[in-house]
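Follow-up to my earlier ticket, as requested here are the two runs.
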Amino acid sequence: MIKVVRGNPTPEELAAALAVVRARAAAAASLPSGAPAARDSWADPARIAAHRLPQPGPTAWARTYWPS
């Protein structure tokens, strides 16, 4: 059950919010049971570790977390 706690949404706003909730529920239901959730590749530490570390120098700090 979904309850509006604050505000007075229009029918269109409420329909949009419910569409998002239903889409997320359908996506979660389509995953096989026991499967780990998909990890966002931006937050993956392997993205940074996969590349060679920058050589020491005055601008090395700026290149540390920006793979080229």
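Run two:
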Amino acid sequence: MAAKERRRLRSSTVVLGGMGVLATALTSCGSEPDKRCVDPNSYDVSRGYKVVDSKACGKGGSGSGGSSGGSSSGRWYYDGNKSGGFSDRGTFSKSQAVDRGGFGCSGSGSGGG
């Protein structure tokens, strides 16, 4: 009788663990990628792109950038690491950022960045 109870406990643990993995996969795919507005002409090899005010990128997330009246037009930079006002190791392509976004998402996920 004890062996039957032990087997039932293991199988329920497997089911609960599997549901946790599924929940993680679903929530990671549904979110927008992290984005920052950067000056695309400010790239520094050791630091990356300079982060600028989001107004320079406009309200849309298309990356077309530019606000009327600003001399520098910004672009959205997705999934970059931010350090000291600079962002690096990201992409200007929102679809590429979503594809490499997480476990279980659509797309190959092996973009190589």
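The only thing I checked on run two: Residues 61-71, 107-113 have pLDDT under 50 and may be disordered. Let me know what else you need.
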